[in-house]
Write a structure and sequence with these properties.
Blueprint: H1 3-19, H2 27-34, H3 38-45, H4 48-71, H5 77-94, H6 96-103, H7 126-131, H8 138-153, H9 160-182, H10 189-200
Helix pairs in contact: 1-2, 2-3, 4-5, 4-8, 5-6, 5-9, 5-10, 8-9, 9-10
Length: about 200
């Protein structure tokens, strides 16, 4: 199957999930919405759980791609970290799957977390073999985002103590953003909170 068709199926699954609980989403309806046969859908994902794993993997990849874009922004390190925190909170607010992945709190409308346990993949589709593997936990996301930030903001010849301080500051920002996902701050909140934290723990 062409990657575009796989994306169409994932788009259809995401749209179906926005309208009804995952338990009520039918494979035949996802296939019809994407304009392919149900057999094609099963050939690509293997099962409904396989489709769920692929959908969550795509949303995780999309979130991390947005982190990379935020970190590639303005030259000022504080602005980059603030943009990363704002991306985290806005994406989690708009995307229930990202919110669940970042917090570990899966509502009854979403696929059950048990569906995301790694499986021995017999798929011939490389993207599905990857989706069938382990998915990041909330702790994994903290590490992934922190390490991305350190890689972008840290200099190659940075002293060890400075590198540790940078890693601590980056992790602080990530955890602060995740706290804002769980308990949204007041108007203008996440940016003000991050700037205040970075004032006390400078990154540049």
């Amino acid at each position: 199957m062409m990657p575009a068709a796989r994306e169409s199926l994932l788009d259809a699954a995401y749209a179906a999930l926005a309208r009804r609980p995952w338990s009520a989403v039918r494979m035949v309806d996802v296939a019809a919405a994407a304009g392919v046969s149900r057999q094609t859908l099963y050939n690509e994902f293997g099962s409904k759980d396989g489709l769920a794993r692929a959908l969550v993997r795509r949303e995780a990849d999309g979130y991390l791609a947005g982190v990379d874009r935020a970190l590639a922004g303005p030259a000022d390190a504080r602005d980059r970290l603030t943009a990363t925190a704002e991306w985290t909170t806005s994406t989690a607010r708009e995307n229930a799957l990202v919110r669940a992945m970042l917090t570990g709190c899966w509502s009854e409308r979403l696929p059950a977390p048990a569906a995301f346990a790694p499986v021995r993949s017999g798929s011939t589709v490389p993207a599905q073999r990857r989706a069938d593997g382990p998915l990041p936990s909330p702790t994994d996301f903290v590490v992934l985002v922190r390490d991305r930030a350190v890689a972008v903001l840290g200099g190659p010849g940075e002293p060890r103590t400075d590198a540790l301080d940078l890693a601590r500051s980056c992790e602080l920002v990530v955890r602060l953003a995740l706290s804002c996902v769980a308990a949204p701050p007041a108007e203008g909140g996440v940016a003000d909170l991050v700037r205040g934290a970075l004032h006390r723990h400078p990154v540049a």
